[in-house]
Structures are given as C-alpha cells and as structure tokens.
Design a protein that fits this description.
The chain is α/β, with parallel strands linked by helices and 284 residues long. The chain has two domains: 3-43, no CATH class; 53-282, Rossmann fold (3-Layer(aba) Sandwich), CATH 3.40.50. The protein has ten helices and eight strands. It has helices spanning 3-13, 19-30, 33-43, 99-110, 131-139, 143-158, 174-183, 221-224, 227-236, 264-282, and strands at residues 60-66, 73-79, 85-91, 114-118, 163-172, 191-195, 212-217, 241-246. The protein has an eight-stranded mixed sheet with strand order 1-2-4-3-5-6-7-8, sandwiched between helices. β1 and β2 form a beta hairpin. α1 (3-13) runs antiparallel to α2 (19-30) and α2 packs across α3 (33-43).
Length: 284
C-alpha cells in the first residue's frame, strides 16, 4: 500500500480533511475515481475478521453493564474461574466500542483480568455501526464529561467483587490519548497503556499519578512530532514511564482489522510488553 494513501486516510479519519476533499485527493493520487473507491475499501477496517476470541467462548462470562449513573455502560468480560484479579479498562478509538474493541476486551480477559470495554458513546445512544457517524459523535463528546465517566469506571472496577482493587487502562488512538488524560486526572489509576495516543501538554505532566507504557508507530508523523516535548516533561517531572517507537509501522499498527496498517510483528511485541506492564502493576 502506497504510504501516500495511508497518510491521506489517516488525515481523513482524524478530522484533518473533510470526506469530499479526501476522496478528491485520493482520486488524484490514485489515478481516478474507480481506483480511489477500490483503495478506500482496502483502507477501511474489516470488522468481519475482528473475532480472534469468540464472544461465546466457553471460558468467558460476557455481559453489558451500567456503572456510574446515566449514560455510562460497558462490555464486561471475565473468565469463569474464581478468584480476584486486576481490572483493565479498554478505551476505544474514535470509532467507538465496535467489534474489534470488544474482541480486544475479550483478549484482555483471557489474560487474567476483569476487562471493561467502555462505550463512551452510550450517552448518545451507543456506538453506531457506521464508522463516519461514530467519528462524528466522538468529536461532539464533552472532554470533561468523558473523564467523569472514565473515573466512574475506575471506581466501579476497583470495588468489583471479582477485582483485587487495582485498575489499569489501555487505549488506542483517541483512546490512547484519553488514557494519558485519565492518568493525570486523579482517577486512582494504577497503570496506563497508550497506543499511538495524543500526548499530554507538558504543563499537565506533573499531574500524572500512574505509570505509563507508551507505544508509538515510526511512520506516525502527526503524533510523533509531540513525543520529544512530552518525554522531556516526563523526565523533568520524574514520572515512571516506558516509551517504545516501532520503526517502519503505521498509526493503528495494532488493529488487525486494518490490512493496510496492521503489523503483526510490532503488534505482538507491543502486546507482550503491555501484558508484562499490567502484570507488574496490577497484581496484588
């Protein structure tokens, strides 16, 4: 896949250009409308291949739960075996709680955690099937209200009868940036893992109260431009963090429903590091 096409799609999905302008520019570089339509289909996530852990997996208990008042709901998954365990909030991309994020939540649960895939679009009726509608709805969310809902999720999981009181969070893209904000929001988080998420402004870094594991894609110029300033602030404030840049891969390299951007080697390496990080900080 030509990197120009991926960069254009990334700009479109993150609101840098409108849909019409995206298609016009894609047609120009691809050589026509027909080619652009084919490329768009190839660039989009294919949720039909999202399921690596079946929702009816006999090892799992899956339920939809409400927490923290009106407009807060999530996809709670755990294994059937007894015992208390650490909890992990899974925060979606700017496409909402879709099939891929639900699958990631099931993966987290199978690794021994009480996993909650939050639907931050529940306040507007839940995640729509259409990606464009989901992105538009994400853009309308109130940032302060979103943090309130995530803090409520931390409280809910910390007090859960099957939890050990320790709560982490992992997020992807928009969700990765949200993990960073949650870790600096006095939420009582014990560990945060951000995949190619927007960095915190340096002035907010001293407020961080949880160790961070930060995964970035080598080709992700939009996000990576802010890493040096972020890391300088982390060091100056004496914050606990791990930072990894995966050379030669694109933003969303962990999303295995995106054939154009998924990178198996980087995704496996990052996921292994994520599980080790949670094991270190969420065990009791």
């Amino acid at each position: 896949m030509d990197q120009r096409f991926i960069d254009l799609y990334d700009a479109y999905t993150h609101g840098a250009i409108e849909r019409r302008a995206f298609f016009d520019r894609l047609a120009q570089v691809a050589g026509g409308v027909t080619a652009a339509s084919a490329l768009f289909a190839a660039l989009r996530n294919e949720y039909a291949v999202a399921e690596t852990v079946a929702e009816d997996d006999p090892r799992l208990v899956v339920e939809t739960v409400a927490y923290g008042g009106a407009g807060s709901s999530g996809y709670l998954v755990r294994t059937k075996d007894g015992g208390k365990r650490g909890a992990v909030i899974v925060i979606h991309e700017n496409r909402g709680l879709n099939a891929h994020i639900k699958d990631v939540t099931r993966r987290v649960a199978l690794d021994g955690y009480l996993a909650l895939g939050v639907d931050l679009l529940a306040v507007s009726g839940g995640t729509p099937a259409d990606e464009d509608q989901a992105r538009e709805a994400i853009g309308k969310l109130d940032a302060a209200d979103t943090l309130v809902k995530l803090k409520a999720a931390v409280v809910y999981l910390a007090a859960h009868e099957l939890g050990n009181g320790r709560v982490g969070a992992v997020g992807f893209c928009w969700g990765g940036g949200t993990v960073n904000r949650l870790a600096a929001a006095g939420a009582g988080l014990h560990a945060g893992v951000a995949y190619y998420g927007r960095t915190l402004p340096p002035a907010e870094v001293p407020q961080l109260a949880a160790p961070l594991l930060l995964h970035y894609a080598g080709k992700d110029e939009r996000i990576n431009a802010t890493i040096p300033e972020f890391e300088q602030a982390l060091k100056a404030a004496g914050k606990a963090y791990e930072l990894h840049v995966y050379d030669g891969v694109n933003h969303a390299f962990n999303n295995d429903t995106s054939a154009a951007r998924y990178d198996e080697a980087a995704a496996k390496l990052a996921w292994g590091r994520t599980l080790e990080f949670f094991k270190k900080h969420l065990a009791r």
